[in-house]
Amino acid sequence: MTSTTPLTTDHQPVSLNTRDMRRILGSSFIGSAIEYYDFMLYATAASLVFDKVFFADLGPGFALFASFATLAVGYLARPLGGVVFGHFGDLLGRKKMLVVSMLIMGFGTVAIGLLPTTAQAGIAGPVALVLLRLIQGVAVGGEWGGAALMAIEHAPAERRGFAAAFANAGGPAGAILGTLALSLFAALSGEDFLVWGWRIPFLLSALLIIVGLVIRLKVSETPAFQRLQSAGEQRRVPLLDVLRNNSRAVLLGLTAATAFYVCQAMTTVWGVSVAVENGADKNGVLNVKAGAAVLTLIICFYSARLSDRIGRNRVLIGASLLGIVLTYPILILITNGTLWGFGLAIVLGNGLVQGFLYGPIAAYVAEQFPTRNRYTGASLAYQGASMLGAGFTPLIVTGLSLAGGGSIWLIGVFWIAVLGAAAAAVRATPEGTRRAAQ
């Protein structure tokens, strides 16, 4: 792997508590929260709504499988978004791409809220749903890289992990907003929720996007990118540059990041559906899920700060091993059909294991790439992980459950294998926590 351009310079202050840094970190957090509100709102609706309004004719089991398939489409599009936005972000700047990604996401989400159902428009409804999910995937694929790099490339070396956590923490924050919004309307009586109630949280995205744009337009471009422009370095095709010089970093980063996406999908998507189907109260499950996301936020910031002190690799490997130990207890709790069982499972899997994996991962991935292709390389690794981990996990575990006659044995083997591979990938990656000082 080629040596990287430092993300920060040694003369920078170690404090993040300045007016400019507060604005930058706030922009990364709020912007990501809004975009992930849109993206994760779809995931919750796929668990509870879309199988009934777009795929009801397929029967319960296959309708849920089809609903999860449309969920996977969005994750398939995320690497494409990462490459496209990464290309222009590495050539034109991080800030411009963040504004564009937010506009695209807002359009896709509001349009989903206006879609006719299969009963109203036939096959046109599901087809449009898939296309709009693709649009969401492209937008959020470009979002993470820009938001993470805005925080990392402005921050001093000693605080990069904690700064990057603000971009990552937008994911759980957005999930909280989306889950609570859907839960509020899920309390509607009769068929109102399936007829129109589920649409309101999607339409509310328009207001959130306006707020996010106002905030994002006030931040400045990153010093690292400005130095790159000032140096007059020859323009390249970032994707080709990454594949030629940093392909190993992409593969290792993708494998490591897949672990927390699988944890997320197992507990907050597949787990929600299974818990409700086995008898847990729907509103209770959604509220517990939102509460666990708060814990994920807290652990995310804690583990990010811990990674600044002891290194990203130690935190990520420790979290992977913890997940392996807790795999079968979590699965037993998810499938026992009680609200308390699901609550404990999601606290352990989503709050604790995912939280410790989530905190350092943005800085861990970004530190493996030079400034000239960092947006592209980090996005390719991270969004590739999202496609494999979050996009396919609900499909894979639903299929494993069917193949095993409802047994959790095969599902547990799958989860443990993912966590073990992540730990091995991190172990093979050079520690990047103090790279700027080298």
Structure description:
This protein has a single domain (19-429), classed as MFS general substrate transporter like domains (Growth Hormone, Chain: A, Up-down Bundle). Helix 1 (19-48) runs antiparallel to helix 6 and helix 14 (282-310) runs antiparallel to helix 15 (312-334). The two termini are 15 Å apart. By secondary structure, the protein is mainly α. 79% of the residues lie in helices and 0% in strands. The chain has helices at residues 19-48, 50-53, 60-92, 94-113, 118-121, 124-152, 160-186, 192-197, 199-203, 205-216, 223-231, 238-245, 247-277, 282-310, 312-334, 339-366, 374-403, 409-427.
Task: Write a brief structural summary.
This is MFS transporter. By secondary structure, this protein is mainly alpha-helical.
Key words describing this protein structure:
globular; 438 residues; 18 helices; Growth Hormone, Chain: A; single chain; mainly alpha
User: Which strand-content bin applies to the residues?
Assistant: under 5%
The count of strands amounts to 0
Ends distance: 15 Å
Query: Helix count?
Result: 18
CATH topology: Growth Hormone, Chain: A
User: CATH superfamily membership, which one?
Assistant: MFS general substrate transporter like domains
Class, according to the CATH hierarchy? Answer: Mainly Alpha
Overall pLDDT, averaged? 85
Q: What order do the helices and strands follow? A: HHHHHHHHHHHHHHHHHH
Shape: globular
The CATH architecture designation is Up-down Bundle
The biggest beta sheet is recorded as:
none
- Using only C-alpha atoms, the radius of gyration works out to 21 Å
